[in-house]
Design goal:
heterodimer, A: alpha/beta, 6-stranded mixed beta sheet, B: 475 residues, alpha+beta, 10-stranded mixed beta sheet, two-stranded antiparallel ribbon, 15 helices, transferase activity (chain A), phosphoprotein (chain A), long-chain (3S)-3-hydroxyacyl-CoA dehydrogenase (NAD+) activity (chain A), enoyl-CoA hydratase activity (chain A), NAD(P)-bd_dom_sf (chain A)
């Protein structure tokens, strides 16, 4: 499913690692031991340079929590007071992480905007002192330097970063619905220029070290080192420190100037920014773009623009004040809570709760080199898995191989990998037409045509050639896994792995277990999925599993709405206006009308009237006329190669006319249409939890947002119920039930939540 | 292959007085510089193997190695190779018809003479019935030429093979861009004026931007100097240590040159120019002068500079290799045996220049020798930092255990036996020709100072390496 391409920005969450449990045991006795040695921040002196090391115990990452902040200030005060020390280097002892951000839980515990504002102001004060330090401080950055970590770094006088893949800089706060609240909105525009600063703050994108150097975000780069007389990572950090110490002394001796030579373009941009008219134009352009993209559903980007503007137009004092106030306001918004919830859910779905599998999957085989099969192969070879890609024809196989190559080559074009790395990755892929080598396969993922008899045929063929331990995974969006497994000699080794198209872009993987699937098989599937970089939900088998099952009633409602005379464009704008990244009609075109029809029929049979509403005949007529959606060039819209604009398919008019339903005015306002679509989705999702298809609400939210494009600003169906109120949703369902009947009958779990207001999916 | 340096040692103000600091242990070179090494005459076992022919070096020569852009700049590579061959003929008086086969190593190929061995051989007056081929393996190309010869003789195919190497960095093939080449090739095929015009209409100015021979490793896109700087940093080799080592190399080379020890050098009368008689890259400077140079690759804080790197060099070398019985039958008194050899390869990114570290213990093991048995070490010096990193790697248990699959370290190399007639840093490094120089230096040192075994080792682009045992021929 194409759904959430637009929320790709959420991908970058993964770098914003903020751990929940960290160092609590230390907190208890840190009061007494503070005099002896500090827990998180310490320093040593080399010559007349102090080397401040941040290293939070028992954690892979450093975060700016209260202890780190207070210990850091203690250390700085000692350094400022010392006669011997002339300058300082700030470095993390953890390879792979400088400072990953502020502690997200500091915000979670805030009850009022004022409390959050106070947190922001504390950070601002700390970094202001650092910025005005009479002794130069060099930030030596290796690994993630994000959010508060970057704000810390840009308050220093000089920055040196390791030029490796782990070193990324960025301010991802916007992805959590907040803004960089420790001076970031004020310092970044001065440092990298207003346009680049807006780009960083509004997209939250991670910037690699070499790019950061070009932008002026860091002053020097240090190359990562190979092995010497100690491990590479260790020596690289040491080297970074040595180089940083030299620069720190150089800054004191005035041998090195902290000022950067700006290029001509930069100088011109800087000059242009001194003209109020130009500035206003930039604010306006950025604001228009943001409004268009967020449809006003996300408050953070607009506030970021506001705060930057305040700082530039009214001076830093006003800027800092605005920053802290808006920070407080944003931290309390539903949107922020929804996005933070998604972040936590994503962290959860990046773990293998089934433990380590008995046997690591080293040899993977993929059956079917179609869009899905090749996509699965691509994300596998990318991570070093030896992958056999089998198809039945040379042409089909060649198409699949080309898809993998293109996917890798696109990365070369984006300079994410070198052409040499591409070739070496591509050599992990072996294309073939027979079952040679399957005797060594640890897992086979089939992505053949969605037809039970075809699936049965390949299952039997494969079982004849694979070793006993080999897992058989089926990539299907709707066929029940137990039916596929029915012909298996070893059903405990059969599992469903539902990938989403395009596989290399969509983060979600839905793993489906049957009653018979063994725990080790599940562990193995999750391990492979994680290796492929997926966010994983594990659900029970059933018609449509979780994702397809939620989508079906929603699509049924969409068809009814179309039958009632709402045109596809209007419907699209209503759904995107609610926060869906792709409009409902466009979604059907992208998924494929034939696929939608197939699913609607299958699930219609399984669930009966509850999945009714729209007439599946509409899809049937479209398929018979060849309106299969984007892939056939025509669906609800007409698609032309190379043209972005799509126009309505006028041939649909006769189909609509023949199936026209009278609209019911009491439930046909714009808002009602939006809620009819969304509440059916939500109701079905809650029912999946009620029936045990879903194990946790968090997986339900992640599945809906990352697989189906459920509005991220609502945080997923369960978070939405929590934040919006179960009662209100039940009320809406009852209203639509009165008009349409059973399809809107709220499920028992939802009613339970409505009846006891204290009951939440997320406590 | 040494990466291309923007400027070379010739830019260093040369002072006749040079100072050495002895503070750094492995670099203190007082003994070699002041006292002549005591002649050792040990009688160890020989490395002859049953049922395998003994292979000997009758002799080997090289034309003087020159900074590129100097006296050889108007010549072509085969001219240098030819001069080396003629020098070898003169030195050994070998009848041309005795030579069965000729092999040369080269790195940057002149496309007109891609089999430079054949062109040089013909030009040097060898019989047109003597086949010749050219090999390439970066800085160990002529090592590959020699070991190919060893293989051909050991397997009984030939008795007499000439192996050599050549490099001319004064001229390198600079190509049209791929787009331009494509258009030119298509133009060739175009039949009508219309087709030609339509092809020409696709011409863009950027087609004219030339394509230089790659100075970077193809797999990693990193230049060798850059990699050397990172390697030095990984092993915590300081700038001072590197400068001191470079100074040692130049000082020792100067001494060897002044004392006439570089007997493998043959004079070369360059057409239209003077006769070149000696290497011109040997320029001992002072640590103070060297310290003034800016880093050449990792700017502004790296440690590899023009002064502690080998410079771009033009030169050629050639050696006469025979089966021992054949040499004796022809009445020769050979200089040395060529014994066991190994090639190794490792990560081309982070261990690009660590070939000698891997190859040294391997070749010793193969030959059944220990480090103590070796009287003469001749290592290729690509960069000071590279040599010192190799020293440190070989002296580290941690490195041996984690990267070499050994239980203990290889050991510290005895500096008093190491490159004491200078090395690539000072004598120069014509990529394809250095291997033969190393072997001849080892053979000549063994003859002069009386040891039995020499160990030759070198690193090469692509993360490869080589080592060979040279055994002195009994006097």
């Amino acid at each position: 499913m194409v759904a959430s391409r637009a929320i790709g920005s959420l991908n970058r969450f993964s770098a914003f690692r903020i751990l929940r449990t960290r160092g609590y045991s230390f907190r208890n006795f840190s009061g007494s031991s503070a005099l002896l040695a500090r827990t998180h921040v310490n320093y040593g002196v080399k010559g007349n340079v102090a080397v401040i090391r941040i290293n939070s115990p028992n954690s892979k990452v450093n975060t700016l929590n209260k202890e780190v902040q207070s210990e850091f200030m203690e250390v700085m005060n000692e350094i400022w007071a010392s006669d011997q020390i002339k300058s300082a280097v700030l470095i993390s002892s953890k390879p792979g992480c400088f400072v990953a951000g502020a502690d997200i839980n500091m915000l979670a515990s805030c009850k009022t905007p004022q409390e959050a504002t106070n947190i922001s102001q504390e950070g601002q004060r700390m970094f202001e002192k650092l910025e005005k330090s009479p002794k130069p401080v060099v930030a030596a950055i290796s690994g993630s330097c994000l959010g508060g970590g970057l704000e810390l770094a840009i308050a220093c006088q000089y920055r040196i970063a390791t030029k490796d893949r782990k070193t990324v800089l960025g301010v991802p706060e916007v992805l959590l619905g907040i803004l960089p609240g420790a001076g970031g909105t004020q310092r970044l525009p001065k440092m990298v220029g207003v346009p680049a600063a807006f780009d960083m703050m509004l997209t939250g994108r991670n910037i690699r070290a070499d790019r950061a150097k070009k932008m002026g975000l860091v002053d020097q780069l240090v190359e990562p080192l190979g092995p010497g007389v100690k491990p590479p990572e260790e020596r690289t950090i040491e080297y970074l420190e040595e180089v940083a110490v030299n620069f720190a002394s150089g800054l004191v001796d005035k041998k090195i100037s902290p000022k950067r030579n700006k290029g001509l373009v930069e100088k011109l941009t800087a000059y242009a920014m001194t003209i109020p008219f130009v500035r206003r134009q930039i604010y306006k352009t950025v604001e228009d773009k943001v409004r268009k993209q967020t449809k006003g559903l996300y408050p953070a980007p607009l506030k970021i623009i506001d705060v930057v503007k305040t700082g530039l137009e009214q001076g830093s004092d006003a800027g800092y004040l605005a920053e802290s106030q808006k920070f407080g306001e944003l931290a309390m918004t539903k949107e922020s809570k929804a996005l933070v919830g998604l972040y936590h859910g994503q962290v959860l779905c990046k773990k293998n709760k089934f433990g380590a599998p008995q046997k690591d999957v080293k040899h993977l085989a993929v059956l079917g080199a179609g869009l899905m099969g090749a996509g699965i192969a691509q994300v596998s070879v990318d991570k070093g898995l030896k992958t056999l890609l089998k198809d039945t024809t040379v042409a089909g196989l060649g198409r699949g191989q080309q898809q993998v190559f293109k996917g890798l080559n696109d990365k070369v074009k984006k300079k994410a990998i070198t052409s040499f790395e591409r070739d070496s990755i591509f050599s992990n892929l072996i294309g073939q037409l027979d079952y040679q080598g399957f005797e060594k396969a640890d897992m086979v993922i089939e992505a053949v045509f969605e037809d039970l008899s075809v699936k049965h045929k390949v299952l039997k063929e494969v079982e004849a050639v694979i070793p006993d331990h080999c897992v058989f995974a089926s990539n299907t969006s709707a066929l029940p896994i137990n039916e596929i497994a029915a012909v298996s000699k070893r059903p405990e080794k059969v599992i469903g792995m539902h990938y989403f198209s395009p596989v290399d872009k969509m983060q979600l993987l839905e793993i489906i277990t049957t009653e018979k699937t063994s725990k080790d098989t599940t562990a193995s599937a999750v391990a492979v999925g994680l290796k492929q970089g997926k966010v994983i939900i594990v659900v029970k088998d059933g018609p449509g599993f979780y994702t397809t099952r939620c989508l079906a009633p929603m699509m049924s409602e969409v068809i009814r709405i179309l039958q009632e005379g709402v045109d596809p464009k209007k419907l699209d704008s209503l759904t995107t206006g609610f926060g869906f990244p792709v409009g409902a009609a466009t979604l059907a075109d992208e998924v494929g009308v034939d696929v939608a029809k197939h699913v609607a029929e299958d699930l219609g049979k399984a669930f009966g009237e509850r999945f009714g509403g729209g007439n599946p005949e509409l899809l049937g007529q479209m398929v018979s006329k060849g309106f299969l959606g984007r892939k056939s060039g025509k669906g609800f819209y007409i698609y032309q190669e190379g043209s972005k604009n799509k126009s309505l398919n006028s041939d649909m008019d006769s189909i609509f006319a023949s199936l026209r339903l009278p609209a019911k005015p009491e439930v046909s306002s714009d808002e009602d249409i939006q809620y009819r679509v969304v509440t059916r989705f939500v109701n079905e999702a809650v029912m999946c939890l009620q029936e045990g298809i879903l194990a946790t609400p968090a997986e339900g939210d992640i599945g809906a947002v990352f697989g189906l494009g459920f509005p991220p600003c609502l945080g997923g169906p369960f978070r939405f119920v929590d934040l919006y109120g179960a009662q209100k949703i039940v009320d809406r369902l009852r209203k639509y039930e009165a008009a349409y009947g059973k399809q809107f009958t709220p499920c028992q779990l939802l009613i339970d939540h409505a009846n006891s207001p204290g009951k939440k999916f997320y406590q | 292959m040494t990466s291309i340096l923007t400027y070379t040692l010739k830019n260093l103000p040369s002072t006749s007085k040079w100072a050495l600091k002895f503070s750094v242990r492995p670099l203190s070179c007082s003994s070699q510089l002041l006292a002549a090494p005591a002649a050792q005459t040990k009688s160890k076992k020989t490395l002859a193997k049953p049922n395998i022919r003994n292979i000997v070096v009758v002799d080997g020569v090289r034309i003087p190695f020159l900074l590129s852009g100097t006296s050889y700049k108007d010549l072509m590579p085969h001219d240098l190779a030819r001069a080396a061959l003629l020098g070898l003929l003169q030195r050994t008086s070998v009848p041309k018809d005795v030579v069965d086969y000729i092999i040369f190593g080269t790195v940057i190929q002149e496309v007109k003479t891609s089999n430079v061995a054949r062109e040089a051989a013909l030009g040097a007056g060898f019989s047109d019935k003597t086949p010749a081929h050219t090999v390439t393996m970066a800085c160990i190309s002529s090592n590959q030429a020699m070991t190919t010869a060893v293989g051909l003789i050991a397997s009984g195919q030939y008795d007499v093979v000439v192996a050599g190497g050549v490099e001319l960095m004064s001229d390198v093939p600079i190509r049209h861009s791929r787009k331009m080449r494509k258009m030119m090739l298509d133009l060739n095929k175009a039949k009508t004026m219309g087709q030609r015009l339509s092809l020409l209409s696709k011409f863009r100015l950027n087609f004219l931007s030339p394509e230089l021979p790659a100075v970077a490793e193809f797999s990693t896109s990193e230049t060798m100097g850059h990699s050397a700087d990172r390697l030095a940093a990984a092993f915590a080799v300081s700038r001072l240590e590197q400068d001191e080592y470079a100074l040692r190399s130049h000082s020792l080379a100067k001494k060897a040159q002044d004392e006439g020890l570089l007997s493998d050098v043959v004079p070369f009368k360059v057409p239209g120019k003077e006769t070149v008689t000696k290497d011109n890259g040997i320029r001992p400077s002072s640590l103070e002068q060297m310290a003034k140079l800016k880093p050449a690759f990792i700017k502004p804080y790296g440690t590899v500079t023009a002064a502690n790197s080998s410079f771009l060099t033009d030169g050629a070398s050639a050696m006469l290799i025979m089966a021992e019985d054949k040499a004796l039958a022809l009445g020769y008194k050979p200089k040395a045996y060529l014994r066991d050899f190994v090639y190794v390869s490792q990560d081309p990114k982070d261990q690009l220049l660590l070939g000698p570290t891997y190859a040294t213990p391997k070749v010793l093991e193969k030959a059944g020798l220990t480090m103590n048995d070796i009287d003469v070490f001749e290592f290729h010096e690509a960069f000071s930092g590279q040599i010192l990193a190799n020293f440190k790697a070989m002296d580290s248990d941690w490195f041996a255990q984690n990267y070499m699959g050994r239980k203990t370290k290889v050991g510290l190399l005895p500096l008093e036996k190491f490159n004491i007639w200078g090395g690539s840093l000072s004598l120069g490094h014509p990529f394809g020709a250095t291997g033969c120089r190393l072997v001849m230096a080892a053979a000549n040192r063994l003859r002069k100072d009386g040891g039995q075994y020499g160990l030759v080792a070198a690193c090469a682009a692509g993360g490869q390496g080589h080592a060979m045992i040279v055994e002195a021929y009994p006097k």
